[in-house]
Specification:
This protein has 294 residues and is an alpha/beta fold. It has one domain (2-156, 184-217, 261-279): Rossmann fold, CATH 3.40.50.720. It is built from nine helices and twelve strands. The chain has a six-stranded parallel sheet, sandwiched between helices. Strands 6-9 form a two-stranded parallel ribbon. The chain has a two-stranded parallel ribbon with strand order 7-12. Helix 1 (11-23) links the parallel strand 1 (2-6) and strand 2. Helix 2 (40-50) runs parallel beside helix 3. It starts with a strand and ends with a helix.
Length: 294
């Protein structure tokens, strides 16, 4: 099985490259400049050249606040280009695994979101990702749209790395404690996507396609995640700080975020037999690796 991975340097993409290498998967990971998804001709050429059995899209415009002032750029990559990639995958008879987000929801539900709950993004990023879900589904009937959330990893820009960086010269950090979600470790997402990829190339039974929630099974606030990060780091002699719990209203951002980001991931377990480890296991793995590699 050959996988074409769109995106090579992001958190999920790098985790997929590592997981693929460890499992001996034939995975062709291409990012800019070799595959700029916003150039339709790149998408057409690369998919035809690589002839993948499965395509995974892990590239996105992920700067949630910047998207508010750059809606065209967010929409081009997250929606239009995602649709092109799904269409070209269909042309070579490959299913597409497309990564999406909890930000398609408004956060008003007082319980974890199910896949078919009403979507109502609060900002441009969420709206562009929702448009991407629809474009992918319309362009390729053999699609898995995997909504994940609160992604962190040893790579790139993410909450855990930011907390460790800030704690290197501050004793106390104010962290939002009234937004709740499922912190999800990118290498856990990668392992799950490889399982899904291997199963969705088997003969089609129909139920494999659609939207799935792909997150850690348990929940936390940002303040909980910060405290767990510092507990792991402190235990290893790394940076740690006290966490002062604040409200989202005390930490205004350009884009509004959902108060409740919790996603119910039981459908993924039912259909694909995949259940991610609890989020604290991801934090332990992430922080120990960051400290070991520092
Ligand atoms: N991060 C989160 O907390 C979070 C939460 C929910 C869902 N998600 C979703 O999870 C997926 C992966 O997110 P992530 O955190 O791994 O993202 P990330 O680390 O921000 O990486 C995004 C990647 O997209 C690539 N990219 C940008 N423009 C491109 C273009 N025109 N053509 C090709 N590649 C391009 C970037 O490449 P360059 O290196 O060239 O810029 C970068 O490698 C995304 O679909 C995102 O929406 C993320």
């Amino acid at each position: 099985m050959r996988i074409l991975l769109a995106g090579a340097a992001g958190q999920v993409a790098l985790s997929l490259v590592e997981a693929g290498r460890a499992r001996g998967v034939d995975l062709v990971a291409l990012g800019r400049p070799d595959l700029d998804l916003t150039r339709e001709s790149d998408v057409v050429r690369v998919v035809a050249d690589v002839k993948p059995d499965v395509v995974i899209n892990a590239a996105a415009f992920t700067a949630v606040d910047l998207a508010e002032s750059e809606p065209e750029a967010a929409h081009l990559l997250n929606a239009t280009a995602a649709g092109w990639l799904a269409r070209e995958a269909a042309r070579v008879d490959a299913p597409i695994l497309h990564v999406s987000t909890d930000y398609v929801f408004d956060g008003a539900k007082p319980a974890p979101y199910l896949e078919d709950d009403v979507v109502r993004p609060l900002g441009v990023y969420g709206a562009s990702k929702l448009a991407g879900e629809l474009a992918v589904a319309a362009a390729n009937p053999r699609h898995v749209i995997a909504r994940t959330a609160w992604v962190y990893s040893p790579f790139g820009k993410n909450f855990v790395r930011t907390m460790l960086h800030l704690a290197s010269d501050r004793e106390e950090l104010a962290v939002v404690a009234d937004q709740i979600g499922n912190p999800t470790y990118a290498p856990h997402i990668a392992e799950a996507l490889l399982v899904i990829a291997s199963q969705c190339t088997k003969p089609d039974v129909g139920t494999r396609w659609g939207v799935f929630h792909l997150v850690a099974p348990d929940e936390a606030t940002w303040a909980d995640l910060a405290e767990a990060t510092f507990a792991e780091s402190g235990a290893r002699g790394g940076a740690c700080a006290r966490v002062r719990r604040i409200t989202a209203a005390e930490y205004p951002t350009l884009a509004r975020r959902p108060q409740n980001s919790r996603l119910d991931a039981s459908k993924l377990q039912r259909i694909y037999g995949v259940r991610l480890p609890p989020w604290r296991e991801g934090v332990t793995a992430c922080v120990s690796r960051i400290i070991a590699e520092a």
